[in-house]
User: Fold this.
Amino acid sequence: MRIAETLDVPLRAAAPNLNHKETAFLMDTRQPIAGQVAVVTGAGRGIGAAIARKLAALGATTVLCGRTQTSLDETARAIVDSGGKTEVIPCDVTILHQLEYAAARVDSTFGRLDILVNNAGVGGFKDPLHNLPPEDWDRILNTNLRGVYYAIRAFAPLMIRAYSGHIVNISSLAGKNALPNGAAYAASKWGLNGLTYSVAEELRGHNIRVSVICPGSVETELSPHTGKDPNKMLQPDDVAHVVGMLVTQATQSFASEILLRPTQKP
Assistant:
């Protein structure tokens, strides 16, 4: 049985009176990015895992990148158990040749890349800048900012070749506001916002859309939770929902920046 026929079976079982055109519409609605390939960095847990699950649910084959094999495998199992398609490529975004290997593998395996979500990030919210060890500054900036540069350098050529694609960078409201005791993190996110705006202009001529999402505090291991009600905080799935909105937007436009806040202040 062909893949298309296999996908058609559950829809016809649920709605046997639909004609082929109506069935195709339902398939497009339920999985609007079916056939596309998405790469998500930092996909082993938290926001990255939620984004990977969301894109797989929308129909994309989702490639999971990150440093920890066991965490990536957990995300992959969740996707497969839900009927999605995925592949795991462990890599560290601070090491260019590992991302270049990942891009080459995506190209050789799938021959395309439609979506790149730069989510990998690390925090640092304990010390004022004058007490911050230089190695912590390097760790934060190298992951949150240089890692995005490396990923775009490695993966954008696949999109340029296809004259199509969407890059989504996960930033933070810390890239818009002061963050005492988190200056390095804030600097990385301010820098990421500027990088996004500039790359969006560079790639528009190649029909590639580049967006940035700036969430407030999300209930993950990364975010500082002191004094906040976790029940009112943003959840990883809230960010994933916005990514899904961006990559399914009509092709003649794109949202360059989204600020995401919880309904109730935590």
User: Anything to note?
Assistant: Residues 123 and 189 are 11 Å apart (CA to CA). Residues 36-260 form a domain with the Rossmann fold fold (CATH 3.40.50.720).
